[in-house]
Amino acid sequence: MDSANCFTYLLLISFLLVGSWFCAIGAQRSAPIVNGLSWTFYNSSCPKVESIIRKQLKKVFKEDIGQAAGLLRLHFHDCFVQGCDGSVLLDGSASGPSEQEAPPNLSLRKEAFEIIDDLRELVHKGCGRVVSCADIVAIAARDSVFLSGGPDYDVPLGRRDGLTFATRNVTLASLPAPTSNTSSLLTSLATKNLDATDVAALSGGHTIGISHCSSFTNRLYPTQDPVMDKTFANNLKQICPTTNSTNTTVLDIRSPNTFDNKYYVDLMNRQGLFTSDQDLYTDSRTRDIVKNFAVNETLFFEQFVASMIKMGQLSVLTGGNGEIRANCSVRNSDNKYMVSVVEEDLESLSELK
Ligand code: HEM
Ligand SMILES: *[C@@H]1O[C@H](CO)[C@@H](O)[C@H](O)[C@H]1NC(C)=O
Ligand SMILES: *[C@@H]1O[C@H](CO)[C@@H](O)[C@H](O)[C@H]1NC(C)=O
Ligand SMILES: *[C@@H]1O[C@H](CO)[C@@H](O)[C@H](O)[C@H]1NC(C)=O
Ligand SMILES: *[C@@H]1O[C@H](CO)[C@@H](O)[C@H](O)[C@H]1NC(C)=O
Ligand SMILES: *[C@@H]1O[C@H](CO)[C@@H](O)[C@H](O)[C@H]1NC(C)=O
Ligand SMILES: *[C@@H]1O[C@H](CO)[C@@H](O)[C@H](O)[C@H]1NC(C)=O
Ligand SMILES: *[C@@H]1O[C@H](CO)[C@@H](O)[C@H](O)[C@H]1NC(C)=O
Ligand SMILES: *[C@@H]1O[C@H](CO)[C@@H](O)[C@H](O)[C@H]1NC(C)=O
């Protein structure tokens, strides 16, 4: 609900006391829940979950704000591969914690997995084993956005952790390649019910973080992409002298560590890093969206939140499906410490009583 609608709504139902409550949350909760999650899922079982996570992440980001980008990307990978079910966290997952041979375009920061399991430990110490790893990833992504300067928003919760993970091939097929043009991005994201506005907004996640050379040297060698700004291209060639160079560079040259709308300003200046980024400004279906985000950060923030909430509901497991993992990188049935975990659960239960 936007604020104008909200106002009309308030007028219409101002005789109802509940009207003001609906509108108070209307601004933050800008996308509907479609897949069984809830805004108040942990209200009684773990009311502190969000404050525990935010407090810890403030500490982590004070040391290294780059970790925020790693956590945001982790949520994206989790949701796109098989659904937001924490499967990306499992040992053996193609971009998971133990995967040494993932190509750079798949590899997630090792620290991201450690940060998530540290959060899991803090949350389970506080509440018992009631919060899923998938929800911790979703909340951590939100906090990464907010603590980097972006919007704060409520995340619908209640995801459960999956029991299986995707193979390498399925993982590769589920994630769009940085070499994709807008046509193929739109086609592939439409299968996830994400439209052109969602694609343009979610790509704005590239306002923070870094990339390996191999994800964009297709635009430098053997011939330089004519769409790319010449000075920008020359600088990238210094950083990546060959296609197999292992260097990294920032995704948003204007403000690499701040979650803002400068990514779209980069695109308008032909300084987008990936084909998938830059083509959003070439393709007529997304060009005006890019322009609007570049001139109006509020608009970008509102749309980013709505699209994140949409993405965060992709094929989630709820109710009696899946489980609450005791260790984010292993299924409970593979967890050799599970016996002691059950004991811990019983202890925290008796403490509650
Ligand atoms: C639209 C299709 C997308 C493509 C093709 C894409 C591709 C990539 C690639 C290739 C990298 C660099 C990997 C490397 O070489 O190290 C990257 C990094 C990143 N992506 Fe995306 N991505 C997409 C969507 C998203 C979305 C939806 C988000 C989150 C909302 C996101 C957030 C990030 C972040 C934060 C980084 C930096 C990670 C870090 O610094 O560790 N991306 N992306
Ligand atoms: C759930 O908790 C939040 C934050 O403490 C509070 O704002 C909200 O009113 C609660 N909702 C319900 C239904 O209890
Ligand atoms: C994965 O893809 C590769 C190359 O496309 C193929 O050779 C291989 O058989 C596939 N593996 C599985 C398990 O499907
Ligand atoms: C990642 O890189 C591999 C080669 O290293 C390539 O086969 C694959 O298509 C790329 N996938 C994505 C999602 O970029
Ligand atoms: C986009 O990429 C696809 C797949 O590589 C290709 O078939 C298509 O011609 C490209 N479209 C445009 C407009 O460049
Ligand atoms: C890595 O990038 C820096 C500039 O950021 C450049 O000076 C250096 O030569 C590059 N190293 C390699 C191995 O390509
Ligand atoms: C990287 O590529 C260059 C040529 O492009 C080649 O000479 C070199 O051996 C390659 N290095 C590795 C480690 O593959
Ligand atoms: C920017 O977008 C916001 C949110 O949609 C809107 O309320 C505002 O009027 C826009 N500002 C301008 C200057 O267009
Ligand atoms: C979680 O499981 C991983 C993989 O088996 C293991 O290396 C790690 O020590 C475990 N973490 C905890 C806190 O038990």
Automatic annotation (TrEMBL):
Predominant cellular place of this UniProt entry's protein: secreted
Cofactor(s) for this UniProt protein: Ca(2+); heme b
Signal peptide coordinates: 1-26
Cell location: Secreted
Similarity comment: Belongs to the peroxidase family. Ascorbate peroxidase subfamily.
Keywords: Calcium, Disulfide bond, Heme, Hydrogen peroxide, Iron, Metal-binding, Oxidoreductase, Peroxidase, Secreted, Signal
The name this protein goes by in its record: Peroxidase
Cofactor note: Binds 2 calcium ions per subunit.
